[in-house]
Amino acid sequence: MANPLKKTMAYLGLVEDELEYDEEPVAPAHPAPVAPVQHSAPAKAPVTPLRKPTPARNVTVQEVNEILTVHPRQYSDAKMIAESFREGIPVILNLSQMSESDAQRMIDFSSGLTQGLRGKIEKVTSKVFLLSPEHVMVSGSSSSSGSEVEASFFAGA
């Protein structure tokens, strides 16, 4: 059946298929034994946690040997702030030399940085902020959260 029209009609069931076989299929002399299928629970893959486990409370807290003071002039200085903060170094951020729009961007960036690394951001003066890592305790009269810092940033200026 070499004619494509006949093949199509056979496929659609309109005509009976005329199969041409040269030889009949030969069955194997000795059939292969079939092993019984055993169902078992799938092996569990090791689980990798997405974040580091928090240390136990009785672990000694690392000492603060350094505090970085930064006077950024443009938003591109944020990389240096982030690198230091990720290493666990507290950062004092003085935004008095920045334009208001860049200063607001820097506060937004710093708030996200401290939130992501479980630290704190506190307003010291109208344009000076303290970024403290998780392991640093800050003593003072009151503590501000990141949203309060952003809301009151330009109020005192």
Explain what the structure shows:
With 157 residues, this protein is an alpha+beta fold. It has a domain at 68-151: Translation Initiation Factor IF3 (2-Layer Sandwich). 26% of the residues lie in helices and 10% in strands. It is built from four helices and four strands; from the N terminus they run αβαβαββα. The protein has helices at 4-12, 78-86, 100-116, 146-151; strands at residues 68-70, 91-94, 120-123, 128-132. It has a four-stranded mixed beta sheet with strand order 1-2-4-3, covered by helices on one side. It is elongated and about 95 Å long. The N and C termini lie far apart (91 Å).
Helix content: 25-40%
And the CATH topology of the domain at 68-151? Answer: Translation Initiation Factor IF3
Helix and strand run? HEHEHEEH
The CATH H-level homologous superfamily of the domain at 68-151: SepF-like protein
Strand content: 5-15%
The Cα radius of gyration reads 35 Å
Q: Architecture of the domain at 68-151 in CATH?
A: 2-Layer Sandwich
Principal-axes shape call: elongated
Distance between the termini: 91 Å
Tell me which oligomeric state these chains represent.
Answer: single chain
Strand order of the largest sheet: 1-2-4-3
